[in-house]
């Protein structure tokens, strides 16, 4: 059924930032080397529920134990399961065409976090040489809930940024390694 993780397994004790949605604060927490956790409190249940968006594009549903918001059970979801769950909850489903129907093989997007201590924290996009080194392209950066589409080469990354990259599976894997290690 997934894993149970707590503070000893590396879950952060503080939240990085919050978003506000229909009367509920959604906490967005970078998980270094993993991805981003987005969760919110369930008022009546004394629990938190949310998702972990992994650096590799996979998603886990996370639910905390009653009365212990820091210990979570993680349930990996396939893209089909994500769509079904969204439908059950009443969210509109977006039908995504397969890359091969567009004549493009293996093209997708992923979000990568710029972690504190990253070799690119405080450095401009041009220093990554992303396109040249990985054949993947940065198409947007999300900072504190604000999106910068098509950032220029002089755009300076800071810890906490989510970098949206488009490319092949191989290119996206290389982009993740590049942003982690330089």
UniProtKB/TrEMBL annotation:
Superkingdom of source: Bacteria
A Pfam family annotated for this UniProt entry: TrkA_C
InterPro entries: AAE_transporter (IPR050144), KhtT (IPR026278), KhtT-like_N (IPR058776), RCK_C (IPR006037), RCK_C_sf (IPR036721)
Gene Ontology molecular function terms on file: monoatomic cation transmembrane transporter activity
Record-annotated RCK C-terminal domain positions: 97-181
GO terms (BP aspect): potassium ion transport
Signal peptide: none
Protein name: TrkA domain protein
Organism name: Nocardia ignorata
């Amino acid at each position: 059924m997934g894993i149970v993780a707590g503070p000893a397994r590396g879950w952060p004790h503080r939240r990085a930032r919050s978003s506000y949605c229909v009367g509920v604060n959604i906490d967005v927490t970078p998980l270094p080397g993993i991805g981003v956790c987005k969760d919110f409190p369930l008022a009546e249940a004394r629990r938190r529920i949310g998702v972990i968006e992994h650096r590799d594009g996979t998603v886990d549903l996370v639910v905390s134990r009653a009365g212990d918001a820091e210990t979570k059970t993680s349930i990996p979801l396939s893209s089909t399961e994500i769509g079904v769950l969204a439908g059950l909850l009443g969210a509109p489903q977006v039908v995504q065409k397969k890359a091969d129907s567009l004549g493009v093989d293996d093209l997708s997007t992923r979000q990568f976090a710029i972690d504190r201590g990253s070799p690119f924290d405080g450095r401009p996009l041009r220093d990554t040489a992303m396109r040249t080194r990985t054949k993947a392209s940065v198409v947007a950066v999300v900072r504190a809930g604000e999106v910068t589409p098509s950032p220029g080469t002089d755009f300076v990354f800071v810890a906490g940024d989510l970098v949206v990259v488009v490319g092949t599976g191989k290119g996206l894997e290389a982009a993740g390694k590049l942003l982690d290690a330089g």
